[in-house]
Amino acid sequence: MDRLSEKRLIIRLEETESTNSYLKQLLREKHLEEGSIVVADYQTGGRGQRGNSWISAKGKNLLFSLLIYPKNVFAKDQFIISRIASLAIKNTLDRFTHDICIKWPNDIYWKDKKIAGILIENDLKGNKIENTIIGIGLNLNQEIFPSELPNPVSLKQITGVTYNKESILNMLLHEFFILYRKLEQGKIGTIEIEEEYMHNLYRRDNYYWFKDANGKFLAKIVNTLPSGQLILKTPDDDNVRAYAFKEIVFVNE
Q: What pLDDT, in 10s, does the model give residues 180-190?
């Protein structure tokens, strides 16, 4: 976590509606240093991708939002931030267990179960990103989940160990800023990050069932674009299909 200002805010809350919303409101009121974070024990209105809610037991899991100011990241290429955040979580969890992968666009899975989610909100200025708030919910120590959640899992359920949230937060931030600084300094290119993301993508190695507006179909993941679109290929022809975040659903068969 080099080069982070000592003036960055680190706010810890017992409860808030959403760490992303809290951090956005602070940013409206004054300038915040890059690396400022808001951590909460509980969110009353936690949000995920596609307008979904994020449900987490009080004090059991890691819930936080991080502020960055991406330099020279164009709006059309903003998915690179999502890739970096996803890889940072995976690299952190790889220290404790196997079979961690990234489900497009940026859910983190252990086998077929969801262990973490990311909500990224960008403020754009012209064709570039002015600031980015990265919200992360990581299931650490929760052992019982609501029945309406389809496939949750926590790191404690996997390993049987209770984890210190502060320690995991520091590891995760360290992993994030390693990749983020390398990209910023030109020590690693977007292509390398894209390749690493693809290599760790959930269900990338075969044909699986998906569902779009026209119904269910069998396809294979062949790529993800800088815009974030998922590229699929069906087994019966050479045509490929491109999907944005809300246009396609993974189907469990």
A: 999 998 888 89
A 10 A CB-CB count for 168 gives 21
Which CATH code is given to the segment(s) 207-250? 2.30.30
Question: Fold for domain 10-199?
Answer: BirA Bifunctional Protein; domain 2 (3.30.930)
Residue carrying the six token digits 């989610």: 117
Q: Please, where are the H alpha helices in 47-148?
A: 79-93
* Model confidence pLDDT, tens digit, residues 129-147: 999 999 999 999 999 998 8
> Tell me, what amino acid is at 55?
I
Report DSSP letters for 93-121, one per residue.
HTTT-S-EEEETTTEEEETTEEEEEEEEE
Report the alpha-carbon angle 226-232-235, nearest 5.
155
User: Is 177 strand, coil or helix?
Assistant: helix
User: At 27, is the secondary structure helix, strand, or coil?
Assistant: helix
